[in-house]
Amino acid sequence: MVASPQRNVLFVILDTVRKDHLGPYGADSQPTPTLTRFAEDATVFESAVAPAPWTLPVHASLFTGLYPSQHGATQERPYLDDATTLAATLSAAGYETGCFTSNAWISPYTGLTDGFDAQRSFFEVLPSDVLSGPLARTWRTIVESDPLRGVASRLVRAGATAHDYLASGDGADSKTPAVIDRTRSFVRAAERERTASDPGWFAFVNLMDAHLPYYPPAEYRERFAPDTDPDAVCQSSKTYNAGVREVDAEEWDAIGALYDAEIAHMDAELGRLFAWLRDTGRWEETTVVVASDHGELHGEHGLYGHEFALYDELVNVPLLVKHPDLDQGRRDDLVELLDLYHTILDVLDVDPAAVWDGLARGAGEPGSESASGPSPPALVARDTTRSLLADEYRSFDDVSRPDPGQRAVHDAPDDYAFVEYARPLIERHHLEAKASEAGRSLPDDHRSGARQRAARSTDAKYVRADRIPDEGYRLDIDPAETTPVDPETDEVVAAAERALAWFETAVGGTWDDASGPTDPADVLSDVDDRTRDRLRELGYLE
């Protein structure tokens, strides 16, 4: 099946939103009338799986079609490098590309905005001049240098602390209206000098309202949490996960109400964008993708936030797609979020290899910039077996150069999605600090130091970790993952374990090093004066 031509793509990530708080997925509180209406025009996917439980690696996978082990964007190496992004390819193909967000991880210093012609972060942890040009290159030099990697870790921790501070209390005003306004301005500008035969636009939007801490606008707090003071409930996942703060059922209900209020505000602003696209005649020629990068835990499994686990509340995410070649309604088959990279290329009928080969051969006027022969870094080819639009979607048997996931499921009895979680340095650091403040210490085998990988089918999941026990679950019988199942006693779980082992082999082996995060305390003695001066100018050194 050939995809119907669509001129534009709007790709929306509802950051940190879990399925069961959305109307299309049966939320009792129904805080999302926009998405509920959108679901009538879209395909609603029940088994969409994120490649990681947090922002940076998930977005890197969305933008490259690579698993986290392949693109390497983790907290130990917190930037995307040596990969050609979806935006870069679309821009090279003539599309106007824009990225608008209030998420501090989506910025030039992490490489996630590479390839966007227009980009604006409404939540910059660092000054804008730090996020581009020489200082961005300085950041990468630091991260790539073994003696300086501890400094990079310290910088990231400082950035996370600044993010928590800026997002708290009275300073936590929503940036979402500004993101929506800027997206509309981008679309108008993108179309200003374009003819009907020209390529259209690709707009990526990340909305952060549902990320901790929860300080919804007054209108939505009064509707969903009228008796809740945001400052009176636990707004720190670190204090809870460190065992410093207890939360009872009533407080969890209050936290959930604030979360719903944030989602309702986000839904309303998204409705403003959708209505504008309809009113201006752009809706029918625009493919719209709405997803979450990961979910959130509110006490389930004894955890708060999206740290230290690969449970379904975190990785089985909402996904709704509007495209004329997709049937409206619900689909239960397995989907990996990294398939969206290939789907969007398919929607716009863009072949990355052809785009970049054409530029390398000097397509265009002699002497033009394209004639200099750009050589993009690692390029993932469009693969229709990973496109939601294709009849052969996830039929991997005849793929000539299978990726790790395709290779792992080749001989498996079922289809599997794969999830990876590298060692969470930032969260571990904050957890240790919270525990220390309370006169406690974390045990060496605490799950906050564990790297984890999972294979998930629609019926089962198997999670392997390097510092905590492995976990297997029968999702068809126990969707809440309350009762671990030994693969030796259950063939469905055993099959998931085998698929995970094949995936691990394909990406270079298991994570079996049980050592904890490195301590950067002494690394500054190896930093040269020039780097010290730069870090001091940025406020990270006294």
Describe the protein:
- This protein is α/β, with parallel strands linked by helices.
- The protein has one domain (8-127, 137-358, 383-538): Alkaline Phosphatase, subunit A.
- 34% of the residues lie in helices and 14% in strands.
- The strands form three sheets. An eight-stranded mixed sheet has the order 4-3-5-1-6-9-2-10, with helices on both faces.
- Helix 8 (218-224) crosses helix 10 (249-279).
Layout of secondary structure:
Blueprint (H helix, E strand, L loop, with lengths): L7 E7 L18 H9 L1 E7 L5 H10 L3 H4 L14 H7 L3 E6 L16 E4 L11 H12 L4 H18 L9 H16 L9 E7 L10 H7 L12 H5 L7 H31 L6 E6 L5 E2 L5 E2 L6 H4 E7 L6 E8 L2 H9 L4 H9 L43 H6 L7 E5 L3 H13 L14 E5 L3 E6 L5 E4 L16 H16 L22 H9 L5
Parallel strand pairs: 1-5, 1-6, 2-10, 3-4, 3-5
Antiparallel strand pairs: 2-9, 6-9, 7-8, 11-12, 12-13, 13-14
Secondary structure tally, helices? 17
* Overall strand count: 14
Helix content: 25-40%
Q: On the 0-100 scale, what is the average pLDDT?
A: 85
* Rg over CA atoms: 23 Å
Structural class estimated from helices and strands: alpha/beta
- Tell me the overall shape: globular
Strand content: 5-15%
